[in-house]
Amino acid sequence: xxxxxxxxxxxxxxxxxxxxxxxxxxxxxxxxxxxxxxxxxxxxxxxxxxxxxxxxxxxxxxxxxxxxxxxxxxxxxxxxxxxxxxxxxxxxxxxxxxxxxxxxxxxxxxxxxxxxxxxxxxxxxxxxxxxxxxxxxxxxxxxxxxxxxxxxxxxxxxxxxxxxxxxxxxxxxxxxxxxxxxxxxxxxxxxxxxxxxxxxxxxxxxxxxxxxxxxxx
Length: 217
Description:
Blueprint: E1 4-6, E2 9-15, E3 18-23, E4 26-30, E5 44-47, H1 57-63, E6 69-73, E7 84-86, E8 91-94, E9 97-103, E10 119-125, E11 128-132, E12 151-155, H2 164-174, E13 178-182, H3 194-200, E14 205-206
Parallel strand pairs: 4-5, 5-6, 6-7, 11-12, 12-13, 13-14
Antiparallel strand pairs: 1-2, 2-3, 3-4, 8-9, 9-10, 10-11
């Protein structure tokens, strides 16, 4: 399956942590890094943190146009211009789309420390809320999302994020209607089988999307 649609929101996994979502004629990207051929231009771009595989200036340049609105974690300030910078707890409303920044971190790893204020995003499209958690492990703050999420974009690659087991636990806590695995098979060391993740998930429908892009050489 190359795209998933729920209540007028169309979701595409371009690859790694990059998603493209379409709603009422607007195109939204999260963490543009992997792109497909001749990528569509963005109306709204959301960036969870400043690491190269999430805040890629070349990819951003390719999808940006006059009027593209960019919301990025505060740690991206040194890399980006013309953006709205956010920390966990901040809320942005843009053209009928609600964007809430939520915590994203590794409790016991050095890669994404809590004090950096990296973010995930709750993106509200009408009745649909999509949760892109950024690079995070299973964290206590996810309990506050219970019942608020329609589609959970779940990293399963391990190392820098949750693995399949942790992600399945997060699904049990958050209780989304749908979950789409991501952040696997695009970088070395993140080789995972999404079918194994699907076997572990309880209480949500797992949607496995084919990536539209390819790993970078």
